[in-house]
Amino acid sequence: MATNSCCAECGNDGGVRLKVCKACMQVRYCSADCQKNHWPKHKKDCKERAAELRDELLFKDPPAKEECPICFLPMPIDLICCISLPPATVSSVPIHDYATANEELVKIDTAHYFPCCGKRICGGCVHSCIQSGNTRKCPFCNSDRGGQTDGELVAEMMKRVAANDAASINLLAHHYHRGQLGVQQDHAKAMELYTRAADLGCSKAHQHMADSYHEGGAHNELGNIYYEGGDMKKAKFHFKAAAMAGNEVARYNLGCLEAESGNIERAIKHWAIAASAGYHKAMFQLKIGFENGYVSRESIDSTLAAYNSSCAEMRSEARDSSIRAIAKTI
After folding, report:
1. What SS3 class is residue 10?
2. Residue 217: how many other CB atoms lie within 10 Å
């Protein structure tokens, strides 16, 4: 193979500006014709290196978690990730067991998005605001939020949508997808808005409304929609985009897709990343993998330490109190 300082096909290095192969970033060409002529010789190496580069991006450390702008604690993946329970061990993942027994709590909003200021506030801070008597106020900007009709809320949201606010676009997509807040259900419109939000960088959505603003979300919602429609290629594309943006649920979904395809090693890699960020479903899958001999003791121990640490970082008395208050109403 020619060096990077000359054309891989003709060897030209006489002052010609060379263009790199964008797939593998390994070879350069002086012209489109040289690149075309060299392709039969380069094809195998190119595809192998391109796959390696994609995996490097896919499995690298995810970005830092989004923080609540009031308490500055990492946003929880699910509401129940905030509840104070014993640490996970190789034989027990208490939060997973608790979630299984309290399915209603899993569906409750993790946080609340306020279109007045464009901020996503954790449930603990919202609960504390309500407890202090400010039931009609935004916890962040203190604007009056009481007495608004569904139509007024949608109108407020539309102003931010018109200004290309990605989180508001994603939220509106959510309402069209599920036919909520007085918006008529329209899956085509929801897909259009989710795509627009993803293009704007709204990586914000798990599987239910609260999580619709978490990093990677619009892509995760699109992944779910394509998965339900049987288009695994597009589903995987969007789950990957969401996972690389830091969405733990999308990362877990990728692990499940890989496991279904028999790629256990890749599945374990995805679950380890999601578990290290505090996602209980991924930690539970790794526990099963350990019991079946697919995960080493060293690996499970290091992931457990990261998982328990992430869970601890997401907890606070305010968040715990909000969960207890919600549990009483279910």
Report:
1. coil
2. 31
Strands 28-29 and 19-20: antiparallel
Query: What share of residues in the chain are helix, strand, coil (percent, to 5)?
Result: 55, 5, 40
Same domain, 237 and 254: no
Q: 149: which 2 tokens?
A: 């009709």
Residues 230, 219 share a domain: yes
274 within 8 A of 252, measured Cβ to Cβ:
yes
When computed from its CA atoms, the radius of gyration of the chain, rounded to whole angstroms, is 23
For 153-185, give one letter per residue: b (16+ CB within 10 A) or e: ebebbeebbeeebbbbbbbbbbbbbeeebebee
**Predicted confidence band at 329 (pLDDT cuts at 50, 70, 90)?**
confident
Return d(Cα 36, Cα 17) in angstroms, integer: 17
Domain count, the chain: 3
Structure tokens at 108: 């409750």
pLDDT digits over 167-210, tens only? 888 888 888 988 888 889 998 998 999 888 888 876 443 333 33
Residue 134 tokens, joined: 């400010």
CATH of the domain at 211: 1.25.40.10
Does 213 map to a domain?
Answer: yes
Q: Are 281 and 254 in contact (CB under 8 A)?
A: no
In a domain, 317, yes or no: yes
Both tokens of residue 249? 């649920």
229 and 306 share one domain: no
Domain ranges, residue 167:
148-205+207-246
> Could you tell me the sign of the dihedral formed by the alpha carbons of 72, 76, 80, 83, in that order?
negative
Does 225 map to a domain?
yes
Contact 99, 248 (CB under 8 A): no
Q: How confident is the model at residue 211 (pLDDT cuts 50, 70, 90)?
A: very low
Task: Give the Cα separation of 229 and 215 in Å (integer).
Answer: 23
Consecutive H or E run containing 271: helix 264-276
Q: Is 293 domain-assigned?
A: yes
Host H or E run for residue 113 = strand 111-114
